[in-house]
Amino acid sequence: MSALRLVSSAARRSTKTFATGRRGYAEAADKIKLSLVLPHESIFSSTDVVQVNISAATGDMGILANHVPSIEPLRPGVVEVIESSNASKKWFVSGGFATVHPNNKLTINAVEAASLDSFSAEAVRANLQEALKVAAGNGSEEDKMEARIEADVYEALQYALASK
């Protein structure tokens, strides 16, 4: 038997033995159970929400019920939680991971998170300028790299506050 016929024969047999799952679309009444946790605090614990928007490393994405299971690294940015059709809450996270589990569960593990309302645009602007100054200065490479990371977070925070 040729290799091609062997592979196609095995593929035909395997589709009969394995059950195939189907992904449906989220209904308006469907909810996803959100757990948003920090090392020292749990902001949400298996709370039913309509949608969660995250700043993933691969781009911004919205997560609804029946989302395909995945793991997404988070970049500094906003996590928006939509609890009902007109109520939403926003947090700024410095990084972490979002894990979409089967059965409509989402876990977000973040290093740090704070309500977007708790930031001052002026303080963010001043801290960004200071971090950029250190990153461009004559300090050690370690200090310059830390300042560059700090500047990246402040730039993301400044963007989030501007589009609030």
From TrEMBL:
Which Gene Ontology cellular component annotation is one that this UniProt entry carries?
Answer: mitochondrial inner membrane
Instruction: Pinpoint the ATP synthase F1 complex delta/epsilon subunit N-terminal domain residues.
Output: 32-111
Does the keyword Cell inner membrane feature in the UniProt annotation?
Answer: no
Protein name (database record): ATP synthase subunit delta, mitochondrial
Originating species:
Sparassis crispa
| InterPro entries (alphabetical) | ATP_synth_F1_dsu/esu, ATP_synth_F1_dsu/esu_N, ATPsynth_dsu/esu_N
Superkingdom of the source species:
Eukaryota
Query: Mind listing the UniProt keywords for this protein, alphabetically?
Result: ATP synthesis, CF(1), Hydrogen ion transport, Ion transport, Membrane, Mitochondrion, Mitochondrion inner membrane, Transit peptide, Transport
> What are the transmembrane regions?
none
- Name the family the entry cites: Belongs to the ATPase epsilon chain family.
Pfam families in the record:
ATP-synt_DE_N
> GO terms for molecular function, please?
proton-transporting ATP synthase activity, rotational mechanism
Q: What is its main location?
A: mitochondrion
Q: Where in the cell is it found?
A: Mitochondrion inner membrane
